[in-house]
Amino acid sequence: MKISEEQKRKISESMKGEKAYWFGKHHTDDTKRKISESQIGRKLSEEWKEKIRKGGLGLKRSDETKLRISESKKGEKHWNWQGGIALKDNGLRHSAKIKYLIKECFKRDNYTCQKCGKMGVQFEAHHIKSWAHYPELRFVLSNLITLCIGCHRETETYKGKNNKLNKGII
């Protein structure tokens, strides 16, 4: 659905200032019970059931679109920007960019652990050259490899294990 610039401006203006009277409110337990009871015996159409089965409810966005949206709201562009007071790589570890890269790594490796060959288990993307020591390789697909959790734990750099060894902590 396309929205005109005028409509966008009006929506933006309506979101500023005082919030609607119901903003931040929650239903009481009694109201929740009444809503639940009103749904008993309700029949869904076959068309609606099919939409639910296919996951067709809600907005679906491609990974590329999610990445573009994420990039457009980073740093000073974000509504809650406070001058860069957070740790630098805190946001990087959970960014849309790294999530997209991890998905690509799993696809490339055919959802198979590259060490033991397991399939159908939970995977993690392992940085061959560590995240901490090679910041220039953090977002390079060729520096990632798919490992099952067990194999990932055995790597020398798992969760900073190598850093702790060097400091004599372990």
Please outline the helices and strands.
Blueprint: H1 5-15, H2 29-38, H3 46-54, H4 63-72, H5 96-108, E1 123-127, E2 144-148, H6 149-153, H7 161-167
Antiparallel strand pairs: 1-2
Give a short overview.
The protein has helices at residues 5-15, 29-38, 46-54, 63-72, 96-108, 149-153, 161-167, and strands at residues 123-127, 144-148. By secondary structure, it is mainly alpha-helical.
Structure description:
The protein is mainly alpha-helical. It has a domain at 112-170. The protein has seven helices and two strands, in the order αααααββαα. The chain has a two-stranded antiparallel sheet with strand order 1-2. The radius of gyration is 23 Å and the shape is extended. The model has no long low-confidence stretch (mean pLDDT 83).
List the keywords.
6% strand; 170 residues; single chain; 7 helices; 38% helix; mainly alpha
Order of helices and strands: HHHHHEEHH
Major sheet: size, sense and barrel closure? 2 strands, antiparallel
Distance between the amino and carboxyl termini: 57 Å
Number of helices: 7
Q: Structural class, from helix and strand content? A: mainly alpha
Q: Rg from C-alpha positions?
A: 23 Å
Output mean pLDDT.
Answer: 83
The gross shape turns out to be extended
